[in-house]
Specification:
Length: about 260
């Protein structure tokens, strides 16, 4: 892009691998024969995690938090109880503040990179226009990377200027339907289900601790990216989307 890279997209791509790196580090550190490899893995974890932190992507942080909670809950009984306590505390906070107030405070806590992300109302309006687009193109979709052009022509926004380039509808599943239609969404969800199933099978059957840890980390990373996709998206044609296919390929190879 002429003005630089999109920080939210970078965060959404990298959170796939933070749980993988953390799980590998713990597994290698516990191994007497492979402990010498723990330092490079730890260094890569600090680099990846540091970049995610510097992106200031609230969606990326939230998705990563859910992925790490799942990883801790999967790894031990203590982790499960800790994850439950954190989720309960978060639920109480959202109920007390209200979903809209909670979202607005999170979005305003750091600042907004675009008018689309400046408020919950802005996201809801974009999602509403995406639903209109899906109703008009349910089977074929409107085509990959065309929503940014079509939305201002067919479905004008009131809270966002026509000069703003909206790369996607800020929801992964809605964007998939917009691009490829309902059959494309079915294929995408089936791909996710197959990848997670392969990861669970590898974790159950493998006798190598580092392979089990890799499967755990990648499954949790995919979950983290899908949580990120609730309020943002990495369109299937985006360059940073290659990381998703790399993760799927690693799981398939391990399986």
């Amino acid at each position: 892009a002429e003005e630089g890279f999109q920080p939210n997209g970078v965060a959404g791509g990298l959170i796939l691998f933070v749980p993988l790196q953390l799980g590998l580090f713990v597994s290698i550190w516990r191994s007497e024969t492979k402990k010498r490899l723990s330092l490079p893995v730890l260094a890569s974890l600090f680099i990846t995690g540091g970049v995610v932190l510097l992106t200031q992507s609230r969606g990326g942080w939230f998705g990563l938090a859910i992925g790490l909670l799942l990883l801790f809950a999967w790894a031990s009984r203590w982790g499960r109880w800790s994850a439950i306590a954190i989720l309960l505390a978060g639920t109480v906070l959202v109920v007390r503040l209200g979903p809209t107030n909670t979202g607005d405070r999170l979005m305003a806590s750091i600042g907004s990179t675009s008018s689309v992300a400046s408020s919950v109302e802005g996201r809801l309006e974009v999602w509403n226009r995406a639903v209109y687009g899906i109703s008009d193109f349910p089977f074929t979709g409107m085509g990959m990377n065309t929503f940014r052009k079509v939305v201002h022509v067919l479905y004008p926004l009131f809270l966002t200027s026509p000069d703003v380039d909206i790369a996607h509808c800020h929801n992964q599943l809605l964007q998939t339907v917009l691009d490829l239609g309902i059959p494309g969404l079915v294929a995408y969800v089936a791909l996710l289900a197959a990848a997670i199933t392969m990861g669970i099978r590898v974790w159950r059957r493998s006798e190598e601790p580092w392979i089990r840890a890799s499967a755990q980390g990648l499954v949790c990373g995919i979950v983290a990216q899908q949580v990120f996709g609730i309020t943002d998206a990495i369109a299937l044609g985006a360059k940073v989307g290659i990381f998703f296919w790399v993760a799927i390929g690693i799981l398939a190879a391990a399986h």
